[in-house]
Each structure stands twice: as structure tokens, then as C-alpha cells.
Amino acid sequence: MSAGRSSRVPPARQRGFTLLEVIIAFAVLALALTLLLGTLSGSAREVRASADAGRAALHAQSLLDQVGVGEALSPGSRDGEFEDGRYRWHLRIDPYVDPTMRTRDTIEPGAARLMLLALDVEWGDGGPRQSLQLQTLRLSQPDAFGGGSF
């Protein structure tokens, strides 16, 4: 070795991330988190909508179970609400007319007859409201004292 020469090896270039790479990584992370949070909030909305629909179905079933208990059904309509107005309902009772019958048979007074119960339940604040429509048939026994209400 000569005295004038140094035995130094050029310093190795340090490896790392450039500023541009770090910025791109943060942008990709932010986009992924935005998509994830959007999915989670959408799922939470769906769970709430499902819970509301389930509660509406339970209220509707409860109301239909009470209609005509202990008294004869008579045609008419009724409105009401559940849970302090959160769910609103409209019940319509009409005599059932069989669509397959070509001629209308006369029904004897005092005979039992089928009644069509149509229940509409609505809920939701502002925007498009959610609704549930149920229909069922009930056999209406005539009231011994003539007439009756639901």
C-alpha cells in the first residue's frame, strides 16, 4: 500500500423510503380505511333497518291476534300507532269475496262469513318510509246480539 492512498471504502448508500413512497403509502392506507368505514356504517344501517322491520312485524302480529277476540268482526277501518308514533298502522276489514266465484252467492243473515283483514304498518322518519303490508282471512261468527265491532 502506498502512503498517499487511503484504504477507505466509499460509504454504502443508505437504503430507505423516499418521501414520494411514504406519501403514496399513506394515500393507499387512507383509501382502504375510508372503504372499510363506509362498509361498516352501511352494515350498521342494514342491521338497524332489519331490527325496525322485525319490530314492525311483531307489532303487526300482535295487533292481528287481538282483532275479533271476543266479538264479531264488522267491516270498517281503524288507525293507530305503536311506540309513541314510531310505527303507524291502518287496518281495513272487508267481507271476503272469492275471485274464483263467477256468481255471487247470497249469504244468509246470521251465517258465519270470511272477512279480509288488511294491515299496513309504516315507520321511518323523513325520506322514503318503510312499510309492511299483511293480509289474512278470519272467520267471523255472527254476534248473538246483532252486529259488533273489532
UniProtKB/TrEMBL annotation:
Domain of life: Bacteria
PROSITE patterns per record: PROKAR_NTER_METHYL
Membrane topology of the entry: Single-pass membrane protein
InterPro entries in the cross-refs: N_methyl_site, T2SS_protein-GspI
Coarse class of the protein's main subcellular location: membrane
Record keywords: Cell inner membrane, Cell membrane, Membrane, Methylation, Transmembrane, Transmembrane helix
Pfam families: N_methyl (PF07963)
Keyword Isomerase belongs to the record: no
Subcellular location(s) of the protein: Cell inner membrane
PANTHER family per record: TYPE II SECRETION SYSTEM PROTEIN I-RELATED
Family as reported in the entry's similarity comment: Belongs to the GSP I family.
Protein name in UniProt: Prepilin-type N-terminal cleavage/methylation domain-containing protein
